[in-house]
User: Fold TetR family transcriptional regulator from Streptomyces rochei.
Amino acid sequence: MASDRRTLLADAALDVLADEGMRGLTHRAVDRRAAMPPGTTSAYFRTRAALLAALVSRLVRLDQEELQTTAQDLPPLRTVEELVDAMARLTRQRLSGEGRRRSLARHACAVESVRDPELRAILVPRENAGREAVRLFLAERGVTDAEDRTHTLLTCVDGLIFDRLVNGGEVRREALEGLVVAALR
Assistant:
């Protein structure tokens, strides 16, 4: 029961962060969003740092689940077009609906982690099936530093997502194609 309540509160904190930003993320705001009595959030997460750590852990777990599911739905990546299609799908997921909300929260947490080593440690990119599919795709095409290029490519895609979160619109397919071609050079 306590772990369920912690998850509910972490989800509510994620929603508050997505809607109100870092300044709006308070124990009271999370209590209201979770429809819990005042003081509930602070009973489970005594400090703001503990609340942020729970939020970031939940965010990473949700992202990992999304990436695993997405990778399972994909056939093996054989062509540049298939890789670009997969990236386009991911960018659409990250820019609409619940994915957009998580993207807003993720970027706010990334900025916060600059001053918080505990958050930074939680946010470190993790191995997942999607990342591995990109690394294998590059390695199978003779890219000798496939791990580094995978990191660079996915960081660039994340940057495009951030730009579209801030400025609106979609990530253009041509931009994704250009990134893949550059990674293959």
Summary: The chain has a mean pLDDT of 92. The chain has one domain: 55-184. Residues 27 and 42 are 6 Å apart (CA to CA). The two ends are 52 Å apart (CA to CA).
